[in-house]
Design a protein that fits this description.
By secondary structure, this protein is α+β, with helices and mostly antiparallel strands. It has 3 domains: 162 residues, FAD/NAD(P)-binding domain (3-Layer(bba) Sandwich); 105 residues, protoporphyrinogen ix oxidase, domain 3, CATH 1.10.3110.10; 107 residues, Protoporphyrinogen oxidase, mitochondrial, domain 2 (Polyamine Oxidase, Chain A, domain 2), CATH 3.90.660. Helix content is 36%, strand content 23%. The chain has 17 helices and 21 strands. Strands 1, 2, 12, 13, 14, 15 and 21 form a 7-stranded mixed sheet that branches. A 7-stranded mixed sheet has the order 8-7-17-18-19-16-20. Helix 1 links the parallel strand 1 and strand 2. It is globular, with a radius of gyration of 24 Å. It starts with a strand and ends in a 13-residue tail after the last helix. The C terminus is likely disordered.
Length: 479
C-alpha cells in the first residue's frame, strides 16, 4: 500500500513528486517505463559540446521553472539567452535570410521604420498589416485558429511569413488547426481591450518604457544543460520511491482505492494516482475505469518531431551566425522548420574554435520527415544547411534525436476538450493529470501542472486524515 502513485518520470512527474514531498512527509512511488528519468529533457556532453536532445531552454515569462531551479540550488547555473543582435531571429524567404524587423512582437510590429525597411514583407503585405487598426473586433467568443485570426487581422502574408512559422512552430502545429484561445490568448485579449493588436502592443511597449522596466532574457537554460534540472530533482527524491524501467499496464478500482498493475506482474495500491504521461498513454491505463474519459484523452492529437545537432569547426563555416537562428515558412518548400544557432544563442555550448547548430524537423505539416532513422536525419540536416547557410564541411559532431508522437496538439476546441476530461475525472476522486497535453506544453507549464497535482493530493489526503481515515502502512508491492 502506498498513498500515491505517480506514473511517468518526465519533468511533470518529477515535479509532482518534489512538490508532494514539499507539502510534508508523503508516501509515494514514482514509476517510469524508460530506464532514465527526465523524459524529453536529455543533455549530452561530448568533446566540449553540450547537446540538447529535446528542449534547450524555457520561457522566463512563466516563472515556475526559474522558481524550481532556485529551490533546487541551481540559481547560479541559470544562463540567459543572448540579447541585442545576438537574439536576432531570421526568416528564410525567397532564397535568403531576412532579419526579423526590430520591434516585432511575434507577429505584429511596434516600431514603424524597421518594419517599413524590411524586405521580408512586400509593400502590399505591409499595407495590409498597417490596416489592422481598422479591422473590427470579432463578433463572437468562438474558438478561432491561429491562421484564421492572423489572416483576419493582419492578412495572408503576415500569416505565411511570420505568425505561422513562428507561433505555429512553437507547438509544431498546423496554424489552420491551432487554437488561439488555448495557446496565445493574449492576442484575443488585446483585440477585445484595444480593438487592435497594433494599438495593444504599442501601448504595452510605451507602458514598459514609462516604468523603466528592464526585460529579462526571454529564454533561460542551465549552464550544463537542462538535464541538470531533472538530475537535481531525482537527487532530492527518496531513491526507495523511484522505480525506473517499470511500466504501468492498467488501473482498476480495488477496495475503495486504485490498483495499478505493473509489467513485472506486481501491483501497487494507492489512494491517489497521478498520470504524468502522454494523454494517449493515460487513455490506455484508464480505459477499464472510464471508457468515456479514455476516449476524450485520445482526442488530443500528437505529432512527431526530430532534432539534429551538428558541430563544425568555426574556420569551416563562412556564415557569421550572428543571432539566435532562423525559421523556415512551410511555403518555402524546404525540409526543415527551423535552425537554432546554439553556440550563439547560449554560452558554453561549443569549444571556442567550434560552432553548434540545431536543426528542427517534422511537426504537424511534415511528420514523415521526423520519422526517418538517425542517419537519414543527419544527412537531411546537412543538405539543408548547405543549401541555406552554405556549410559544406563535415561536422565534427552529429547527433539526431527522434520524438515520435511526443508533441501534443492544441487543436481548435482544446479548452472545451480539456474541460470535458476534467469533468470526467471529477467522477474518479483520487485520479489526477499532469503534463504537456492540457494547460501548456512548455517546461514551466509542466512543472506548474505537477505542483497543482501535488497540492490537490495533499489537500485531499489532509481531508481524509482529519475525517479519521486509518493511516496506511508503508509501501508494499503485491504480487
Amino acid at each position: 500500500m502506498t498513498k500515491t502513485v505517480i506514473v511517468g518520470g518526465g519533468i511533470s512527474g518529477l515535479a509532482t513528486a518534489f512538490h508532494l514531498q514539499e507539502c510534508g512527509p508523503r508516501d509515494y512511488t514514482l514509476i517510469e517505463s524508460a530506464p532514465r528519468w527526465g523524459g524529453k529533457i536529455t543533455s549530452v556532453h561530448e568533446d566540449g559540446f553540450t547537446v540538447e536532445g529535446g528542449p534547450d531552454s524555457f520561457i522566463t515569462q512563466k516563472t515556475a521553472a526559474i522558481e524550481l531551479c532556485k529551490r533546487l540550488g541551481l540559481e547560479d547555473q541559470l544562463v540567459g539567452s543572448n540579447s541585442g543582435k545576438g537574439a536576432t531571429v531570421y526568416i528564410w524567404s525567397g532564397g535568403r535570410l531576412h532579419p526579423m524587423p526590430e520591434g516585432m512582437m511575434l507577429m505584429a510590429p511596434t516600431m514603424v521604420l524597421p518594419f517599413l525597411r524590411t524586405r521580408l514583407i512586400s509593400w502590399p503585405g505591409k499595407l495590409r498589416m498597417g490596416m489592422e487598426i481598422f479591422v473590427p473586433r470579432a463578433r463572437s467568443d468562438e474558438d478561432e485558429s491561429l491562421a484564421g485570426f492572423v489572416r483576419r487581422r493582419l492578412g495572408a502574408e503576415a500569416l505565411n511569413k511570420l505568425a505561422g512559422p513562428l507561433m505555429g512552430g512553437i507547438y509544431a502545429a498546423d496554424p489552420e488547426r491551432l487554437s488561439l484561445k488555448s495557446t496565445f490568448p493574449i492576442f484575443l485579449e488585446m483585440e477585445k481591450k484595444y480593438g487592435s493588436l497594433l494599438r495593444g502592443m504599442m501601448k504595452s511597449v510605451r507602458t514598459r518604457a514609462a516604468h523603466g522596466a528592464k526585460r529579462p532574457p526571454m529564454f533561460m537554460t542551465l549552464r550544463g544543460g537542462l538535464q541538470q534540472l531533472s538530475d537535481a530533482l531525482v537527487a532530492r527524491l527518496p531513491q526507495g520511491s523511484l522505480r525506473a524501467g517499470c511500466s504501468a499496464l492498467a488501473v482498476h478500482r480495488h477496495a475503495g482505492r486504485y490498483r495499478i498493475d505493473l509489467d513485472d506482474g506486481s501491483s501497487l495500491l494507492a489512494e491517489d494516482v497521478v498520470f504524468a504521461t502522454p494523454s494517449f498513454v493515460t487513455a490506455d491505463l484508464v480505459g477499464q475505469l472510464d471508457p468515456v474519459l479514455a476516449e476524450r484523452l485520445r482526442a488530443i492529437r500528437y505529432v512527431s518531431t526530430a532534432t539534429v545537432s551538428l558541430g563544425f569547426l568555426r574556420s569551416e563555416v563562412a556564415h557569421p551566425l550572428q543571432g539566435a537562428g532562423f525559421i523556415v515558412p512551410p511555403s518555402e518548400g524546404r525540409r526543415i522548420t527551423a535552425c537554432s544557432w546554439s553556440s550563439a544563442k547560449f554560452q558554453h555550448r561549443a569549444p571556442e574554435d567550434c560552432v553548434l547548430l540545431r536543426v528542427f524537423i517534422g511537426g504537424a505539416l511534415a511528420e514523415e520527415l521526423a520519422e526517418q532513422d538517425e542517419a537519414a536525419l543527419v544527412h537531411l540536416a546537412r543538405e539543408e544547411l548547405q543549401a541555406i547557410l552554405g556549410i559544406a564541411a563535415t561536422p565534427v559532431l552529429a547527433k539526431a534525436y527522434r520524438w515520435p508522437k511526443a508533441n501534443p496538439q492544441y487543436d481548435l476546441g482544446h479548452e472545451e476538450r480539456v474541460a470535458e476530461i476534467e469533468r470526467s475525472l471529477s467522477n474518479l476522486p483520487g485520479l489526477h493529470l499532469a503534463g504537456a497535453a492540457y494547460h501548456g506544453p512548455g517546461i514551466p507549464d509542466c512543472i506548474q501542472s505537477g505542483r497543482k497535482a501535488a497540492q490537490a493530493i495533499a489537500a485531499r489526503q489532509a481531508r481524509g486524515e482529519s475525517a479519521g481515515r486509518s493511516e496506511p502502512s508503508s509501501v508494499c508491492i503485491e504480487s
